[in-house]
Design a protein that fits this description.
Length: 196
């Protein structure tokens, strides 16, 4: 179920980023218009028009292992980075195995523009099935949801959206939502401070 939610979140982010990156006034060619001569291959753009070309930021450079351990008040494994297009993740695992999906996960998305990032953030923040609450003092806007897996803080800053997920399960697999919120907020504040 969690994997399906993550895939859904990524699909929404990608769809909005591509849709929001389309230039105003851009039109599709008229099929009835006479065919124009195609430019030489060297003159063609490397990226299709309308595609998001913003590079991903290395999410593991936004917070250190020490920052995460201080915020979560526990040990985490060394970070594991992954990049897919304009989105990057950084996973700090749980060395005790209490949080099999990871203790702390950051997802940083470069939406290409502030408008596209705001559209993505607004879609996530206003999803009625998530029952998110606004969180003040982090980025330009932030919202938090708790589910059966973790507490998830979504943050907007400029052309970036950031999701910080925290699972502080103990050996009995009990979680403290207040502690997770505090940890996610502290981690997000540090990460947002390092975003361009």
């Amino acid at each position: 179920m969690r994997h399906a939610q993550a895939i859904g979140f990524v699909a929404i982010l990608a769809a909005v980023a591509v849709g929001c990156s389309k230039k105003e006034g851009e039109r599709k060619p008229d099929p009835a218009a006479p065919a124009q001569e195609k430019p030489a291959p060297a003159a063609e753009p490397a990226v299709p028009p309308g595609a998001v070309t913003a590079p991903a930021i290395d999410a593991c450079t936004l917070v250190s292992k020490a920052d995460v351990e201080a915020a979560s008040k526990g040990k985490v494994s060394d970070p594991k980075a992954d990049v897919a297009g304009n989105m990057a993740t950084c996973l700090f695992g749980d060395p005790d195995g209490n949080a099999p999906l990871g203790r702390v996960k950051l997802i940083a998305l470069n939406a290409g523009s502030a408008g596209a990032a705001k559209s993505i953030h607004d879609l996530v923040a206003n999803d009625p099935k998530d029952k998110r609450e606004a969180v003040a003092g982090v980025g330009e806007a932030a919202s938090l949801k708790n589910d059966e897996y973790a507490s998830h803080l979504s943050v907007l800053k400029g052309a970036y959206t950031l999701e910080v997920s925290v699972n502080l399960a103990d050996k009995s697999l009990k979680r403290d939502a207040g502690a997770e919120r505090a940890a996610a907020t502290e981690i997000a504040k540090k990460a947002v401070g390092k975003l361009p």
